[in-house]
Specification:
heterodimer, A: alpha/beta, Transcription Regulator spoIIAA, 4-stranded mixed β-sheet, B: Rossmann fold, 6-stranded mixed β-sheet, globular
Amino acid sequence: MPIPTIVVSGEGDHLALEGVLDIRTLESATAALRRQAKQEKLHTLDLGKLLELDTPGALLLRGLVGKGVELTGVRAEHKALLELVGSLKLNPLPKAPAAPRWRQTVIDIGKGADDAWHDMLDIITFVGRAASALGHAFVHPRELRLPSISRQVAETGIDALPIVGLMAVMISVVIGYQGVAQLRPYGGEDFTINLVAVSVLREMGVLITAIMVAGRSGSAFTAEIGVMKAREEVDALNVMGMNPMEMLVVPRLIGLVITLPLLTFYADMMGLLGGGVISLVQLDVSPVQYVDRIRHAVDGSDLFVGLVKAPVFAFFIAIIGCMHGLRVRGSAESVGRETTRAVVKGIFLVIVLDALFSILFEKLGL
Amino acid sequence: MVAARSSDPIMTARGIVNRFGRQHVHDGVDLDIERGEILGIAGGSGSGKSVLLKTLTGLHKPNRGEVLIDGKPVAKISPAEKASLIGVLFQQGALFSSLSVAQNIMLPMREHTSLSPEDRHTLAAMKLELSGLEADAGLKYPSELSGGMVKRAAFARALALDPRILFLDEPTSDLDPLTASGIDALIAQLNRNLGITVVIVTHDLTTLFTICRRIAVLVDKKITVDTLEGLRRSKQPWIHEFLHGPRAQGAMTARKESHGNG
């Protein structure tokens, strides 16, 4: 398509427009007319050779008419457009109300604090509601939805095995390499095995697994329930006399509480396996020796300290995921926003809880 | 209602074949869209109306056949040129949810023209008024709009660059009858005063009967294009049922009224 052009021809106060007056040529036409107007006040503008006219062009002509310019030779096909644009009220767009930046900052801080407070109340309320639904389900075992729970275990657990295992091996490789490098100057590189075993069993196994599950399954909970909420499926459950807490939240909660300890144990084993590989490559410790060293380095309490945290993490990841899913309002963008929040809050809570556990176990002397 | 037929159509589709897997949706569809007309595209659910719309606008590449705008293949038209040729009103509006209505309208202007921000504001205000919205609506976000306002705002955005052809996907669906009539009147007015060619994909018999000059019906993977009078004489069972069923009677009454007044 050739680039459209507009030519302003004629002299003095009688000018003519030739060519195309549309959104692309609007600027050059405006500039040309303004240049002309500086010399002499425009009286008539001939449009007989104007090939095309669109609404921005018509708006420009309307402005000229408002300044007392007479349009001559208007083509039949342009008349209706000029009439329509001429009849508009053309109220300008209102300005968006804007507060000064410092005030906006204060407002944002206040809003943030208020949101955080309500968030906390929501979590506490939701924990209570979930506990009540859970209790109800255990009192009436008939209402425990076993197929639903087993599906959750499969989705959150079995499907996560490859990635969790890989991450556990990787993290123990990282710790192992660091241990060897840092301890070698002191001649204590053999203690790398203790380092890997203790940190994997007590902290890394469960932490990595919980973070992975919060990102993988917590977000899935929010998205699944959120989409159901957005499409009014949750309302449909309510109307048909079914409790969404019981149908949607309880199976996910139970499923994850079953899954996460198992996944953690699996991650622990994979982590020890990674440590074994490091020992073989870096320290020339044979697998048999390695197992023997592990037996002396750690005992049951280390394994217990790691595993006992898993169901607690699982409970809160599931609570946060489901809560944000049920918070979705209406639109699809709301699903995305709540999913992000669920993941961030889930991981944050896992790490806060882990810190609290550390203090607790220190006091208990475990 | 007898208008002179212009000899060169603004848009032509030739031998369009669309299939998904082994399912044929279109099998040799030919369609000429005349300059300045309002063409309605109708058909049963799953007859491929939306796929045809996507094919015409170049969003979907057909398995065979081609679409020409002003004699040029739609696939070879540059994005900027296409934006000034074609405007689409999507069924759900497809307004960008992170932008206000005015920003939605100004976005294509900012991308494809070198207009100053003041000019863009003035033009956006004009498009809003052309679409029947108050200037205040420009500050609102799509989530704050009612169904009818979403359609009107999407209209304003589709008109942002004054396209030559406007495609409307179910413009009156999900609207109450009064709002739907308002949209119909808006389409007719824009077609009359802006000289814009309009293609409407719709189920709404009232829209088809009152404002469309010609109607294209998709049946059995083929297309039949004619005026309403011509189609009402058709022997094809689906078309006959479609245009003579109980709902069609009401739409006929609306047609008589609107044509009597207009």
